[in-house]
Automatic annotation (TrEMBL):
GO terms for biological process: rhamnose transmembrane transport. Its main location: other. It is found in: Cell envelope. It comes from the Bacteria. Gene3D superfamilies: 3.40.50.2300. Residues 1-29 form the signal peptide. One of its GO terms (molecular function) is carbohydrate binding. Pfam families: Peripla_BP_4. InterPro entries: Bact_Solute-Bind_Prot2, Peripla_BP_I, RhaS, SBP_2_dom. PROSITE patterns: PROKAR_LIPOPROTEIN. This is Rhamnose ABC transporter substrate-binding protein.
């Protein structure tokens, strides 16, 4: 580890040699300016000064580590990030597990550290399970950006959030409330039990439900489909069996809402039970057109990946450190400012229904 740390300070051959000799020591500090800065690690910790005018470095190597690779939503995000990296002469790739379980990303992070990536972008399956290796990465000078689903705050430098978490959570209750006339039982079909993004949204949904206007609505159950199509389908069936008078389901996951729509479409509940949540227009088009689903929301996943790539490059180039108030330019998306706790917000979600869905192709 000591040798690898020195090797990352590519300009400091002498320091690297000294450091290699010091392999028996537990740390090899003060080798390069870069390493000194990296020793700080973590979102708030970096004491190095940002230089907003520093040019973007060329040939940056970065990797996207999604919750799971076989999720169409994550694929759109990561493909857009990979294309963005090309536009600033870097290279990016996507690696990751096929299941979204808590610890499934750990071995991938370890490999990315060994490969000496300049930046790792992670959509965390669990806010804490990935922390050990991510802190290790930051210690070695690798920049860490969470996107889509955050890690604990000290395990990354920046979190690229798709939209305000509060807006996402509250608006889903507002939408379904209106659709069911603010009356009746509702359930949530979520992703995994540990997913930071879904859990944050669900907390805001519960907050919103405390408003007296929802006094006749009751959240009866949060079910977990684990972002697995089959499990989400079965969980939908289970919800409707357990609560035959259910009025609505909110599924704040693209995998969950598509599976739930498929179940409803072929059942006697079609048109009777309202399904709302977060989905991709391409997966939901059929169900909107045939009347199974009236509306759902999402941000632009391509822009999320694009912004993630630019943020990672801005960190790796020293334009930003992740401190509140740092600003950077994200190509065609314009300028962004780092907010509290290293959060950068992409924008507002779009609501899709039959009037606009054909304008969207992702
Ligand atoms: C699924 C994933 C992802 C989430 C979207 C809305 O694809 O759970 O993390 O942001 O849904």
């Amino acid at each position: 580890m000591t040798i690898r740390t020195a090797a990352r300070g590519r300009t400091a051959a002498t320091a690297a040699a000294v450091c290699a000799l010091a392999v028996a020591l537990t740390a090899c500090s003060g080798t390069t300016k870069n390493d000194a800065k990296n020793d700080a690690g973590g979102a708030a910790a970096s004491s190095a000064k940002a230089d907003p005018n520093a040019p973007l470095k060329k040939n940056l190597k970065m990797a996207f580590l999604p919750k799971q690779i076989n999720n169409p939503y994550e694929k759109i995000v990561d493909d857009a990030g990979i294309a963005a990296a090309k536009s600033f002469h870097g290279t990016a790739k996507e690696v990751g597990p096929s299941d979204a379980s808590a610890s499934s990303q750990v071995s991938y992070i370890n490999t990315l550290i060994q490969q000496q990536q300049d930046a790792i972008l992670v959509a965390a399956n669990d806010p804490n399970a990935v922390c050990g290796p991510l802190k290790q990465a930051m210690k070695q000078g690798i920049k860490v950006v969470s996107y889509d689903s955050d890690t604990a705050k000290d395990c990354r430098q920046i979190f690229i959030n798709q939209a305000s978490s509060e807006d996402i959570g509250r608006s889903l209750i507002q939408h379904i409330g209106k659709q069911i006339g603010y009356k009746g039982k509702i359930a949530i079909l979520s992703a995994t039990q540990n997913a930071t993004n879904q859990n944050t949204w669900i907390d805001f949904m519960k907050q919103e439900l405390k408003d007296p206007k929802y006094k006749n609505m009751k959240l009866v159950k949060v079910a977990y489909g684990d972002d697995d199509d089959q499990k989400s389908f079965q969980q939908t069936q289970g919800l409707l069996q357990a609560y035959p008078d259910l009025k609505g389901i909110i599924s704040p996951t693209t995998v969950g809402i598509a599976a739930a729509a498929r179940y409803l479409d072929d059942s006697s509940y079609k048109g009777k039970v309202v399904l709302n949540g977060l989905g991709t227009p391409n997966q939901m088009r059929k169900y909107v057109k045939d009347g199974t689903v009236e509306q759902f929301s999402l941000w632009n996943p391509e822009n999320l990946g694009y912004l993630g790539a630019y943020a990672a490059a801005a960190l790796a180039s020293g334009q930003i450190t992740g401190a509140q108030g740092d600003t950077f330019s994200a190509g065609k998306l314009g300028k962004f400012t780092v907010g509290k706790d290293g959060e950068v917000i992409l924008g507002k979600p779009t609501v899709f229904d039959k009037t606009n869905i054909d304008q969207f192709h992702f």
